[in-house]
Write a structure and sequence with these properties.
By secondary structure, the protein is of the alpha/beta class. The chain has a single domain, classed as Aldolase class I (TIM Barrel), CATH 3.20.20.70. Helix content is 30%, strand content 17%.
């Protein structure tokens, strides 16, 4: 008879009052970005956080280590702003890679030609690339930067460096870029990458979001399916609902945060670049981990604060309901 597994000392589950276990940690490493995507931040007038307010690599490593060793977090995603504008990012990747989690990065890919190999060497496993248009004029209009060629080269660099899977994130906005649905699907099939279509969420800096601007999951699948027939893939805890091409040409995902909210299975928590812990992307209150870290809090005190905050997580985000409260921060300030 085999021996019973030995429980990990001090291992707790990060569970909220609805029984959801949290195993996915998103860490924003900067609020800065070299693009100005219209749904994320204004073109002018952004006030960046002072460097002293941003968590150091050592502080990020301490929190991540605590979350992995104390709560069993098994996936870490680095976000921004644009994380590749943070100096010496591969150094942080190497620190976090030692934790042996599913370590990934969300980026606009504009700097990947020069960084992809270093990130892989440091231990990065996979990558998500944000790109909302394949048309040069529209890309420039959406990002306020004429850098589509650099982004496309960055996608190729990620593939060539061995990152797998490479996923593309495209926020679909009605009347702005939804006429590119099939173009994105074809691009993903040709490149062998997964395209994830993301429903437009009320986190834009200008506050211009409206329900009418959302291109919903069912419509996305229907419109792509006319050209490339799709069939559903069994749902997991991942945020994207997956569909595969009937002809075997790969798959797409749809993050249907608005029309088919997946709050009931959400297993994600977030830390902003300035060290604020958020139990939900749409949370209206934050836990100041930076203050705890810099005041000398012990690991037990940090863990207790995190656990207490997660326990207060709401059942869902309430988008489209009369009692929805828009977060004070925009997407670039929270982290994807």
């Amino acid at each position: 008879m085999g021996l019973a597994p030995i429980p990990l000392a001090g291992m707790d589950q990060l569970v909220d009052s609805f029984g959801r276990r949290h195993r996915d940690l998103r860490i924003s490493v900067t609020d800065r970005c070299n693009f100005r995507c219209t749904y994320c931040m204004p073109e002018e007038g952004m006030t960046w956080m002072p460097r002293s307010e941003i968590l150091s690599f050592e502080e990020i490593d301490r929190i991540a280590t605590l979350m992995v060793e104390r709560f069993g977090i098994d996936a870490i995603r680095l976000t921004g702003g644009e994380p590749t504008v943070r100096a010496h990012l591969p150094v942080l990747v190497e620190k976090l890679a030692r934790l042996d989690t599913d370590l990934s990065l969300t980026t606009n890919a504009s700097r990947l030609v020069s960084m992809a190999d270093d990130l892989v060497a440091a231990g990065l496993a996979r990558i998500n690339i944000s790109i909302d248009s394949l048309r040069r004029d529209r890309f420039a209009e959406l990002t306020k930067r004429d850098e589509l060629d650099q982004v496309l080269a960055g996608i190729d660099a990620a593939i060539d460096a061995g990152l797998s899977p490479v996923k593309l994130n495209a926020v679909m906005m009605r009347g702005i870029n939804d006429d590119e649905l099939v173009d994105f699907a074809r691009f993903g099939r040709d490149r062998g990458v997964v395209v994830r279509f993301i429903e437009y969420m009320p986190l834009d800096a200008q506050g211009a979001w409206s329900d009418a601007s959302v291109v919903r999951c069912d419509e996305i699948v229907e419109r792509i399916g006319v050209t490339f027939p799709l069939e559903p893939v069994e749902r997991t805890s991942a945020p994207a609902t997956r569909f595969r091409y009937v002809d075997g040409g790969g798959e797409i995902g749809v993050v249907a945060s608005v029309s088919e909210a997946f709050c009931g299975t959400c297993d994600r928590v977030r830390i902003t670049a300035d060290g604020q812990f958020r139990n939900c992307l749409f949370a209206v209150e934050e836990l100041d981990l930076r203050a705890l870290l810099r005041s000398g809090a012990s690991d037990d005190e940090l863990a207790a604060a995190i656990s207490g905050n997660v326990d207060e997580k709401l059942a869902g985000h309430l988008i489209g309901k009369v009692n929805f409260i828009r977060p004070a921060r925009s997407m670039s300030q929270i982290g994807g």
